Amino acid sequence: MHEAVAAIAGCGVSPIVRIPANEGWMVKRALDSGAHGIIVPLIYTADDTIKLLKSAKFPPQGQRGFGSPFPMEKFGIQTTTEYLHQANDALLTIVQIETKEALQNIDAIAQTAVDCLFIGPFDLGNNIGHPIIDGKMDDELHEAIATIQRSAKEHNKSTGIYCISGDQARHYADQGFHMVSVAADMIALPTYLTSALISAKGSYVHSALNIAKGAAAKMTGPYGR
């Protein structure tokens, strides 16, 4: 993680780290590496977000310890004092809304000081009893997503959502989402390499048919079928 954060920051891009769970030591490790923000999965209640914020903020807003020598260089030329003074306002806290409980508590979660509500539609669909099957979202899942976005707007929060294609990303961007994924490496790399291998092994017509067949396949999970 430390190497990836440094490489991304060195390209002038903000490194955002998704940690595995809402644990204080995980939050500290990511931010102490120089991450400009964190994404935290499986948030259920406003108390979960308050716990996160305590871990992510320096006193008096939180209880994050100060002393890592690594984060300052990820923000250009910055002293330790400058980093300490700006970190609470500058670092992003992004929570994943992907459970039935989080949906039920969305207004309370949105009222806390987190910066962005990021929707995981596959887990959210599973948790509310309307999983995405063959790439199709039920109306109930569409409404759940809309509910989250309405709450975010009401409480002046940014919104994000995991998307599986450029078309879907454009759809949600047009709806006002601020943070959308475009493709996942676990999808993009196998898709390209498979199509290239088919082209190398077979006739043009055969390859075209297989590529078209692959393009028409529906996504049933965040990383493919």
Specify Rg, calculated over alpha carbons: 20 Å
Total helical elements: 11
Overall average residue pLDDT: 89
Profile the largest sheet. 6 strands, parallel
Distance between the termini: 28 Å
Succession of helices and strands: HEHEHHEHHEHHEHEHH
Strand order of the largest sheet: 1-2-3-4-5-6
Shape: globular
Describe this structure in words.
By secondary structure, the chain is α/β, with parallel strands linked by helices. The chain contains 11 helices and 6 strands. The chain has helices at 2-10, 24-32, 46-56, 80-90, 100-104, 106-110, 121-127, 139-154, 166-174, 185-201, 204-216, and strands spanning 16-18, 37-40, 92-97, 116-119, 158-161, 179-180. It has a 6-stranded parallel β-sheet with strand order 1-2-3-4-5-6, covered by helices on one side. β1 (16-18), α2 and β2 form a beta-alpha-beta unit. The protein is globular and about 60 Å long. The protein starts with a helix and ends in a 9-residue tail after the last helix. The model has no long low-confidence stretch (mean pLDDT 89).
